[in-house]
Amino acid sequence: MVKHPVLAFCFAALLKPAQAQNNITASNATPVIVNAGDVYNAFIANQSRLYNGTEHLGYSVRIKNHAYFLQKELATGKLVYDELEFTNVPMAYDLFKDQVVVQHLNGFTRVALISAKVKEFTLLNHHFIRLDSTSGASLITGFYDEVYTGQLKVLVKREKFIDETIKDELEREFISLDMIYIQKDGRYYYIKNKKGLFAMLKDKAPAVKQYLRKNRIRYRKGPETAIVKATAYYDSLNK
User: Fold this and answer.
1) Cα 38 from Cα 13, distance rounded (Å)
2) Other Cβ atoms closer than 10 A to 30
3) Mind listing the pLDDT tens digit for each residue in 32-81?
4) CA 216: distance to chain centroid?
5) Closest Cα to residue 111, out of 128, 144, 89?
6) Which of 94, 132, 167, 237 has the lowest tally of Cβ within 10 angstroms?
7) How many CB atoms lie under 10 A from the CB of residue 108?
8) Average pLDDT for residues 12-20, to the nearest whole number?
9) How confident is the model at residue 138 (pLDDT cuts 50, 70, 90)?
10) For position 167, what pLDDT does the model report?
11) At CA 26, angle to CA 20 and CA 28, rounded to 5?
């Protein structure tokens, strides 16, 4: 697929807090710079940075499901991009390409941002941060969903890939894949299964197991929920 450069457009930013995140239509939300500083830069040079990327052309309608986080429609979010914080941004998160996609001011073009310049973003009540492979041996460079933050952290690397099967004809479908990590003592550990979870929490493993059993939280039915609940309970025991 050929990518096309998108020219930056400058426009006036409304310097006010963002509203709650909601689904949006084409262009009924105007991005806002937070703490932009110099007024001239806020209204002219800095605002145009948000559209520094390539045109996002989407995917074939013949592929089942969609490539995005939770929904294919744009939603209002916020992000830190190129060292500036923007809020009230119409955006989506492409899990297949691991890219943040924003709506251009023209109302119809979608722009895939340069991932290395996205420090963090919040979308549909989920906060994502960018980590690189140097942060930990088991990490791959990309965006991680911070699903729990306490003394420990639980992060999820959310991805989608295209599965291809041949029946009467080629069928393609987007499939979700989530990889869950716990950050402890500054290091990241990939949690592959229940055994790995209890190994990570080994000093309080008996108490954590009892808590999960008592509350009927089953790892197999929902690994992410079980890991978050177990980690939060572990933290409560160490206060």
Assistant:
1) 12
2) 14
3) 666 543 333 344 444 567 788 899 999 999 999 999 999 999 999 999 99
4) 29
5) 89
6) 167
7) 8
8) 35
9) confident
10) 82
11) 45
Q: Is 176 exposed, middle or buried (0-12, 13-18, 19+ CB in 10 A)?
A: exposed
Structure tokens that stand for 164 in this block = 């291809």
- For 152-204, what is each residue's pLDDT tens digit? 999 999 999 999 998 888 999 999 999 999 999 888 999 999 999 999 999 99
What is this structure's pTM? 0.81
Q: Specify whether the backbone of 106 is left (phi greater than 0), alpha (psi in -120 to 50) or beta.
A: alpha
**Number of residues assigned to the chain:** 239
Long-range contacts of range 102-107, CB-CB < 8 Å, 24 or more positions apart? 102/31, 102/50, 102/51, 102/53, 103/24, 103/26, 103/27, 103/29, 103/74, 104/6, 104/9, 104/51, 105/9, 105/11, 105/27, 105/30, 105/51, 106/9, 106/27, 107/26, 107/27
The closest alpha carbon to 3, from 53, 62, 78, 69, belongs to 53
Scanning the structure block, which residue is given the tokens 């991805």? 159
239 CB-contact burial (10 Å; exposed 0-12 / middle 13-18 / buried 19+): exposed
Amino acid at 47: Q
Residue given tokens 């251009």 in the structure block:
104
